[in-house]
Amino acid sequence: MPMTPIIESTFHAGRIAINYGEAAGTGPAIVMLHGMTGDWRGFRDLMNRLAGGWHSYACDLRGHGKSGRDEGNYRLPDYASDIQAFLAGVSGPAVLLGHSLGALTAMLVAAGKTELVRGAVLLDPPVYVRNAPLGTHPAVEDWFGWVYETVKDGPTLDQVVEACRLREPDADEKEIQAVALRVSRVDPGTVGAALEETMGDDADMEAALAGLRCPTLVLRGEWRCGACVREEDAAWMRATAPALQIVQIPGGSHGFLWENPEETAELIQGFLGILR
Q: What is the largest CA-CA distance in the chain?
């Protein structure tokens, strides 16, 4: 599969600079939003798979990657405000595709700015945090806690690389370097807000879900495999927004997009086909 050229640019969403990658295409716009501790580069493969049919954008959320920092302002409405500005100022009306934190952000944006969102793809949205502590998913709490301790004192990249080696001694060196670079660019305040359980302040997930008016696909893994949607969460989503299309990836963890890229991309492309 030939690689699609991706150009990095910066958009100023108020006082926050949003870094993003753009793969030009002749089709409609799709804007991709990563999860906490991620960055836009995690969508390179998916952008490549959608090349030709879609004009793809992938954003670094505030406090991540090369985007701006805003100490103390890492709540879901803050992330959503940035993306609303991005849609209005850069991409225009678009399909939103988000993973994890990006999925929650996409849900809020889609409900609040219906004129700017043509459709939504929510990848394993951790809606369990609406009524349960973060530690309900021990692996998530452990990862956020480790990232916070690793970056809180402003370490060098080499120090983060060594911390990654200690955490995953059997990991491939190339992967260690990639994870270290990504983690080194995370503002500790982002994971701090999640650990302190203030990230969801002023965000009504039920109202946002019920307020969705665009076609929406939810892809979820299996909780027992590390995914972030419990059976009761899926039932809650169906009851709150009956028009949602919810599909489970058998054996999928929270990272099924990268573990099963072909299967996941096929499901996404099938859904996007109805929005063209």
A: 49
